[in-house]
Amino acid sequence: MKKEINSKKIGLALGGGSVLGATHIGVLKALEENNIKPDYIAGTSIGAIIGALYAFGKNSEEIEKIALDLGWTDISSISLSKYALLSNKKLGKLLIKNIGDVNIEDSKIPLSIVATDIETGKKVALKKGNLGRAVIASSCLPGVFVPEEIDDKLLIDGGVVENVPVKTVAEMGADHIIGVDLYGNYKGRKPDSVLGVLINAFNYLMAASTNNQTEDADVMIKPELSSFSKVKTKHIKALIEIGYKEAKKNLKKAPFTQTA
Fold first, then answer.
1. Which of the residues 45, 60, 87, 139 is marked catalytic?
2. Pick the catalytic residue: 87, 117, 139, 157?
3. What is the DSSP letter of 130?
4. Which of 25, 94, 108, 189 is surrounded by the most beta carbons within 10 Å?
5. Residue 89's pLDDT is what?
6. Is residue 210 a contact partner of residue 183, using CB atoms and an 8 Å limit?
7. Is 227 a catalytic site residue?
8. Global pTM?
């Protein structure tokens, strides 16, 4: 049994990774079993989606049910925009269906959603405003999904600037940080579609900076996910189980818990 040994605040940084983000659900399950309750959550891309559901009160079991019912067409549609091939506006509807049309600042756990200003290249940490629009922005893979305009900024995927938002959750006030890097050990695979090519290219561009961005995490969970597709949803359960096992292993070394 685990118990907290001090009153310092715990932050959870959930990284981007398309469908591989189902791994986050297993991590949440392990946290629940160890009675580790994040005081702050920051998420990028798929990490923003899972983080939002959790921050607004959905537990790991409820989020798993949502994920198992999803297909690629449930979160995307063809776009006529000059900016991208697809639209991910359906993400907003998904969140409204499951937690309502809410604002970020109304979350039960303080939440920050990371996006990138495509004009300046700077990080935008969204902590207020409409949740659905923020998650859409954070998940806009460049060239794949249409950018989202918020506060006169054209926003795309937060992975461009901070794929595992360790620094962001530290800025929120976290003393101890748990990070989940879905690409830390990912070796890649041959794409079989235009979508796969675009996602692979994007992931390789951001991979080099991620290691430097995650150095300050107390616990970094980096599961081996190379055998899984980043766009196919048929292995959701397997990804959840890997996330659970990897988190359990890493949490044994967490500096902010001890065995009772």
1. 45
2. 157
3. B
4. 25
5. 66
6. yes
7. no
8. 0.87
